[in-house]
């Protein structure tokens, strides 16, 4: 799976998108942060639904934060 987090700067209106690839496993690396995310996400049932919430991305990711790809381009969701 994949999760996308879209961040918007209030002053400049610029966007940053963080995409995390997910793998489901039985290994006990559970995170209460993902439970909170799943609870919030389950309430978004329509295409244009939005929410604001506070999540700790470090706890969500639980992995090396030094390995990533960065590129400039269009958004992954409308308006593209």
From TrEMBL:
SUPFAM superfamilies: Carbonic anhydrase (SSF51069)
E.C. code: 4.2.1.1
EC category: lyase
Known catalytic reactions: hydrogencarbonate + H(+) = CO2 + H2O
KW DNA damage (keyword) present: no
Alphabetized GO MF terms: carbonate dehydratase activity; zinc ion binding
Matches recorded under InterPro entries: CA_dom (IPR001148), CA_dom_sf (IPR036398), Carbonic_anhydrase_a-class (IPR023561)
Domain of life: Eukaryota
Domain Alpha-carbonic anhydrase span(s) in chain numbering: 1-80
Keywords: Lyase, Metal-binding, Zinc
Keyword hit for Ligase: no
PANTHER family hit by this protein: CARBONIC ANHYDRASE
Family: Belongs to the alpha-carbonic anhydrase family.
Protein name: carbonic anhydrase
Organism: Rotaria magnacalcarata
């Amino acid at each position: 799976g994949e999760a996308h987090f879209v961040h918007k700067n209030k002053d400049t209106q610029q966007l940053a998108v963080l995409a995390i690839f997910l793998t489901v496993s039985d290994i006990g690396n559970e995170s209460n942060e993902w439970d909170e995310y799943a609870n919030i996400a389950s309430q978004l049932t329509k295409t244009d639904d939005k929410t604001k919430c506070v999540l700790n991305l470090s706890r969500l990711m639980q992995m090396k934060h030094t390995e990533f790809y960065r590129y400039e381009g269009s958004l992954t969701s409308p308006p593209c």
